Amino acid sequence: MTSSPDHPPARLEPVRIVAIGGSTRPGSTTEMALRCAAAAAEAEGAEVTYVVGRDLLLPIYDVQTDERDPGAQALVDAVRRSDGILIASPGYHGGISGMVKNALDYVEDLARDDPPYLHGRAVGCISVAHGWQATVGTLAQIRQTVHALRGWPTPLGATVNSQVTRFDENAVPNDPAVAEQLSTIGRQVLEFARMRHGSSEPTSTA
To answer: What is the CATH number of the domain that holds 77?
Structure first.
């Protein structure tokens, strides 16, 4: 079977997903929500690179220079190689945290790539906040930023209210509905990436 731009050949290597998010506190509720979603993709064969917690303490994105510190360069390289993205942000004062937004600003370094920015990549969007109002506003901002970067937000986005949801040390939430919502997002990113690349990989490794 011949390939075409619309029907690329099946790939043999695992789907690569970058999981970006959390707060300055390792193991935060936001990071656990992100890990829960990513675990669902990993369980079905995805290779996940995590940029979480203190990894997000990057220099402010600087358009005046091409020099990047090692952490920022690692982030850019991981996104460049990725087939899909997961993003989780805490709601800070009604919107995306500065740390997560700064990390996403580094995607500007992919502006001259072919394809540019996040073009062709599914992006799972997750917001976590202390109350429903902040979760909804933050999720809307994440999705808006993903659109601006030419990514394709998955049909399902997740809002996690940290007032009522707790995660154990294995990133499993106390609410099965939250677990299913986050896992679905992880699987949607993986599924879209496989369809995009014409992969014949199985849907489960079990």
So the answer is: 3.40.50.360
